[in-house]
Design a protein that fits this description.
The chain has 111 residues and is mainly β. It has a single domain, classed as predicted glycosyltransferase like domains (Thrombin, subunit H), CATH 2.40.10. It is 14% helix and 43% strand.
Length: 111
């Protein structure tokens, strides 16, 4: 299984809709959906509003997934794009500021 596909060209043609800059992280965790069992993934980057995942699950654009974010907990989101083993996830709700900052500190983001 792979987390990805080849739909990045669609996303690349649109302006960047991010509400906040992403922080580079390299954080092992797991993700799943209603049709996919929990599987290991890496959080590549993250903001309070979304993240990029890399992993072996074949998610689909428009699919709802759950990501277990260390120090934050389970966060549901929508797959916005996929490319190979990478996927862009927009969270259903933003991560609160303090848990987000604590997670960044614990993962060593930006070092």
């Amino acid at each position: 299984m792979e987390f990805g596909g080849d739909h990045m060209a669609q996303a690349a043609a649109k302006p960047d809709p991010r509400r906040a800059p992403r922080e580079a992280v390299d954080c092992a965790t797991r993700a799943w959906s209603s049709r996919l069992a929990p599987a290991p993934v890496q959080i590549v980057n993250i903001s309070p509003y979304g993240c990029m995942l890399r992993g072996p699950q074949p998610v689909r654009i428009g699919e709802r997934v759950t990501v277990d974010i260390p120090g934050v907990g389970e966060r549901r989101g929508l797959v916005i794009w996929t490319l190979g083993e990478r996927s862009g996830i927009e969270f259903e709700s933003a991560i609160a500021l303090q848990p987000y900052l604590d997670m960044l500190s614990a993962t060593g983001a930006g070092r």
